[in-house]
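Appendix C: a fully annotated inverse folding record. The material below is reproduced so that readers can follow the format used throughout the book. The structure is listed first as tokens, followed by the designed sequence.
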């Protein structure tokens, strides 16, 4: 086998395996949970298990992780074991196996408190130059794993890249006020303006990263839908987001009105994907303007891949309020 995908029973892992298999590639899937796209069931925190899985592998897509939804249900040590120790095990064995590309799926959550500007300030323009200020164990462990990737590139010359993905999960929002104030599709479409990306576009970014990592060396990229905004919009976004959206995508108003949807009154940050588009040649298709066009034509706003994967959830049990406990 030439490609290893960790987290292959999850949203992104499954999307990667499906896409790679459709292209005729030989893929091994590793996950703690069994699934139709998982060939190796076990924990990445288990070093000998990881060593066995890495035999014959040339490319690693490391998507396995404990996520934000697990913060309220798992111990902090669980996050360290999976997100840090698990990543270290994979990096060690990737070097030993002579892996050519190691792509680590991180998250824009590593930015933490840097995402929220002071009360009277404009919205934050988030590029890779913004210094992360993690605010929970999820962000801390993901940031630490990013640094491990950088270390292995520096000292072991492993071709590694970090892709900080924004929101892409299809589950309902974890904010009670947002859930009660907006239709779910309305929420997610609004987020494509500043902090959401379709899983099909995430997959294409990962494939490009694996192709270009040996030549480019270590890089960190924000992987989010292309925003219609510029820095000139940041003040309006914080105080009157509908005005900024109307200026950049005026056709949205009629489609929202037709459905009784609402625009957010304020947007506090904008993720910028320019570096990934420039350096990787990434061309994400699903952005706010494109999706408004799909709405106007009566089409589903989700990509075929997103529809195929559907909703998985993050826990084996349900909760009395919301998709998961919020810490």
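Designed amino acids, in order:
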């Amino acid at each position: 086998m030439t490609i290893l995908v960790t987290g292959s029973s999850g949203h992104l892992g499954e999307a990667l395996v499906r896409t790679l298999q459709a292209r005729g590639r030989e893929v091994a899937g590793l996950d703690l949970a069994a699934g139709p796209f998982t060939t190796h069931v076990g924990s990445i925190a288990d070093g000998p298990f990881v060593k066995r899985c890495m035999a014959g592998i040339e490319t690693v897509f490391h998507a396995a992780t404990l996520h934000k939804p697990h913060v309220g249900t798992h111990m902090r040590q669980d996050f360290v074991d999976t997100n840090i120790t698990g990543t270290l095990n994979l990096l060690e064995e990737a070097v030993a196996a002579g892996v050519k590309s190691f792509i680590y799926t991180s998250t824009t959550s590593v930015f933490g408190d840097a995402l929220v500007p002071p009360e009277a300030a404009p919205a934050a323009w988030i590029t890779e130059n913004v210094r992360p200020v993690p605010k929970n164990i999820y962000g801390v462990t993901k940031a630490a794993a990013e640094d491990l990737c950088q270390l292995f590139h520096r000292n072991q010359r492993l071709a590694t890249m970090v892709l900080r993905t924004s929101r892409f999960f299809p589950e309902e929002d974890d904010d009670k006020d947002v859930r009660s104030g907006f239709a779910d599709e309305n929420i997610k479409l609004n987020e494509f303006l500043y902090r959401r990306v379709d899983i099909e576009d995430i997959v294409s970014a990962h494939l490009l990263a694996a192709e270009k990592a040996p030549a480019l060396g270590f890089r960190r990229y924000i992987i989010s839908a292309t925003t219609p905004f510029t820095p000139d919009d940041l003040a309006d976004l914080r105080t009157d987001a509908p005005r900024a959206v109307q200026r950049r995508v005026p056709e949205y108003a009629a489609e929202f009105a037709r459905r009784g949807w609402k625009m957010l009154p304020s947007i506090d940050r904008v993720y910028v994907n320019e570096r990934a588009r420039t350096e990787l040649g990434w061309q994400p298709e699903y952005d706010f303007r494109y999706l408004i066009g799909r709405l106007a034509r009566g089409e589903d706003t989700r990509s075929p891949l997103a529809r195929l994967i559907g909703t998985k959830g993050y826990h084996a049990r349900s909760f009395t309020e919301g998709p998961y406990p919020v810490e």
